[in-house]
């Protein structure tokens, strides 16, 4: 009971901070909500005078920054769901800054001593002041007794308690949204918050981050496309992670765009290919590929940092993504539609042909156009309508994949404005198609003791016929992957298939606020 009262008061505080930033019922969205909420919004706007700079997304981001670490983290996860918002809001929210003042050196020393059971000086020759501080952790530079330079990442003191407390509030907002806004149910607000909570809690254990780094390091070695700092396992604990220090140029450093010794085309290609190859070949990907987490080292290698979020795809999902990408490369909308039905993303009572036709309506107008000529807003809106018409539920793991693809594409394009995403993707996608659908793939299926085949068949009804058909086509020489296809030559620069839907998170929070108000 007491807990609920406390959560309720925190909910009020949350609502208040949002009101102060005109982010509870943002003026931009007022026309979309029922009149009592609109009225409430208009009244509440009195309190945000002088605090209304930027669009609704930016104001929401500012409010989350004021609310503290859990909200910042939640906002970051939310901003990965570009599918849920209109593009302007999503763009504003993506400017959320994860900058928090560092905690004092004495606290950092206490954390190290508690984790290592001895003063830090027993393990390290030196330790710097914090060089970077974010909502969950901060990083120091250190030197081991052996002389090796390392990065020492330390969790914020008490972060577990703080996160649990604030996530309870966010959870309550989601429950309210689920209860009072039927339109939002398709977005599964409760599941989303549960998923976000899980992701945040995973980030609060640096042993898991070290494990993720080590897993990706193997992928990097295997593909030869990127590198990951080596982990100093004997100094890793729940609250501390020690790893090789990477010297090099951060992608967030503006000089990366002008320096003569930097091969930007090559780096752009490596960013995209690293992401695609690890996804399609290993089913795992670094899901936070923004500039702050990327470095180019002295030898021109791409180095990935920060392994708080890994995305994972199962076999069926990998095959689905490959089919979809390849389908768009080939402009084969029927095929894309079929795989959506096969995997169950579109409920079976809909017509495959109608779905294919809807995809064609999105895909065709943007083929052959330069990315800069395509109105993303229009494409997103159209896809939103499709997902709604065809009752498609959101697929969190695929949304994370799409978001990372967009993020990686953005990084690559800033490095090299002429960058052709599809050209970079082609060798990886073709290799994957060959593996999945070619004779090798079929033989491998058998060699895997038929286990994988069984699993695949369980998840993809109709897969047997498709594989048989494709194998036949392959044998008949109808599939020639070495020859660039005409449509592919004018393929779009942006991935056109982004499951999209719109949610008025403001409306959800507004309802929460209104409800809280009514209880007073
Ligand atoms: N191994 C490393 N070598 C060099 N710098 C590092 C290393 N690890 C982290 N950093 C620096 O610390 C910053 C924050 O580290 P990161 O792991 O991204 O933490 P966060 O999860 O807080 O974003 C990075 O952007 C980078 O500047
Ligand atoms: Mg980072």
Compact summary:
The protein is of the alpha+beta class and 520 residues long.
Q: What report would you give on this structure?
A:
The strands form 3 sheets. Strands 1-2-3-4 form a 4-stranded antiparallel β-sheet. The chain has a 3-stranded antiparallel β-sheet with strand order 5-7-8, covered by helices on one side. A two-stranded antiparallel ribbon has the order 6-9. Strand 2 and strand 3 (149-155) form a beta hairpin. It is of the alpha+beta class. It has helices at 2-20, 35-44, 56-67, 69-79, 87-93, 105-116, 159-180, 189-203, 206-223, 264-282, 315-330, 333-342, 352-366, 376-389, 396-415, 421-437, 439-447, 451-459, 463-475, 486-489, 505-519, and strands at residues 124-133, 137-144, 149-155, 240-244, 248-250, 284-286, 294-297, 302-304, 310-312. Among the domains are: 2-98 and 162-178 and 504-519, no CATH class; 315-489, no CATH class. Bound molecules: adenosine-5'-diphosphate (ADP) and magnesium ion.
């Amino acid at each position: 009971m007491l807990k609920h009262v406390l959560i309720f008061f925190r909910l009020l505080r949350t609502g208040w901070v949002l009101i102060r930033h005109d982010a509870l019922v943002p003026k931009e969205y007022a026309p979309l909500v029922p009149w009592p909420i609109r009225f409430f919004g208009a009244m509440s706007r009195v309190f945000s005078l002088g605090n209304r700079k930027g669009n609704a997304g930016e104001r929401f981001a500012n409010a989350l920054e004021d609310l503290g670490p859990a909200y910042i983290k939640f906002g970051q996860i939310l901003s990965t769901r570009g599918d849920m918002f209109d593009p302007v809001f999503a763009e504003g929210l993506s400017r959320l800054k994860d900058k928090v003042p560092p905690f004092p050196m004495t606290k950092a020393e206490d954390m190290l001593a508690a984790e290592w059971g001895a003063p830090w000086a027993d393990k390290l020759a030196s330790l710097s002041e914090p060089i970077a501080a974010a909502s969950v952790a901060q990083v120091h530079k250190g030197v081991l007794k052996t002389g090796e330079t390392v990065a020492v990442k330390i969790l914020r003191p008490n972060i577990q308690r703080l996160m649990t407390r604030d996530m309870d509030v966010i959870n309550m907002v989601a429950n309210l949204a689920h209860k009072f806004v039927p339109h939002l149910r398709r977005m599964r607000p409760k599941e989303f918050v549960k998923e976000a909570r899980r992701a945040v809690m995973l980030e609060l254990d640096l042993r898991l981050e070290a494990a993720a780094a080590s897993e990706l390091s193997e992928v990097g070695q295997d593909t030869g496309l990127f590198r990951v700092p080596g982990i100093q396992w004997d100094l890793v604990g729940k609250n501390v992670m020690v790893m090789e220090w990477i010297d090099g140029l951060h992608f967030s450093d503006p000089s990366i765009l002008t320096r003569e010794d930097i091969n930007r085309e090559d780096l752009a290609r490596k960013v995209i290919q690293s992401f695609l190859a690890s996804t399609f070949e290993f089913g795992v990907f670094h899901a936070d590929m923004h500039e702050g987490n990327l470095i180019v080292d002295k030898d021109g290698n791409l180095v990935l940092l920060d392994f708080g979020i890994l995305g994972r795809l199962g076999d069926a999902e990998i095959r689905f993504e490959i089919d979809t990408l390849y389908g768009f490369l080939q402009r084969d909308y029927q095929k894309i539609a079929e795989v959506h039905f096969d995997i169950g993303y579109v409920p079976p009572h809909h017509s495959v042909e109608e779905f294919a036709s809807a995809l064609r309506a999105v895909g065709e107008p943007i083929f052959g156009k330069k990315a800069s000529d395509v109105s993303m807003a229009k494409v997103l809106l159209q896809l939103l309508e499709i997902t709604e018409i065809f009752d498609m539920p959101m697929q969190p793991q695929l949304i994370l994949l799409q978001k990372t693809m967009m993020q990686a594409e953005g990084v690559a394009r800033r490095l090299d404005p002429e960058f052709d995403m599809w050209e970079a993707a082609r060798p990886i996608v073709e290799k994957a198609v060959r593996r999945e659908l070619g004779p090798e793939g079929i033989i491998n299926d058998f060699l895997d003791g038929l286990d994988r085949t069984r699993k695949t068949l369980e998840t993809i009804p109709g897969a047997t016929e498709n594989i048989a058909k494709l194998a036949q086509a392959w044998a008949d020489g109808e599939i020639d992957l070495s020859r660039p296809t005409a449509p592919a030559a004018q393929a779009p620069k942006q991935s056109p298939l982004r499951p999209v839907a719109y949610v008025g998170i403001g409306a959800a929070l507004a309802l929460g606020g209104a409800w809280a108000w009514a209880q007073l």
